[in-house]
Amino acid sequence: MVAKKIRDISVRAPRKLVHIFHILQALNTRFSSDLPCSSPTFVEEYFTCPCKCTSCGVRCCLSVNHTSNNVGHMAEFLDSSGISATPCRYDPT
């Protein structure tokens, strides 16, 4: 079945194996390096809680609607001991 599909040129023009090799080699060279992180695919604000701490202004790092599961807000900023440097306060919204 595969060999039959490879030999079938009714949809495409036949290509020599050397041409296919050069195309694959060029694609490999083009995409072998890390892609730049110029812009994120999804904006973080769409998926994280929009609340900000009233004392430090840091956004809550939990997902949207986490309060419906009775989970409080949490700041991303932590000191070396793993504890928030200042207790964050969020408006009850």
UniProtKB/TrEMBL annotation:
One GO process term, biological-process aspect: lipid droplet formation
Q: Might you report a single GO cellular component term?
A: lipid droplet
Cite the GO molecular-function annotations of the record. 1-phosphatidylinositol binding; phosphatidylinositol-3,4,5-trisphosphate binding; phosphatidylinositol-3,4-bisphosphate binding; phosphatidylinositol-3-phosphate binding
* InterPro entries documented for this protein: ZFYV1
Q: Where are the transmembrane segments?
A: none
Q: What is this protein called?
A: SJCHGC07733 protein
Species name for this entry? Schistosoma japonicum (Blood fluke)
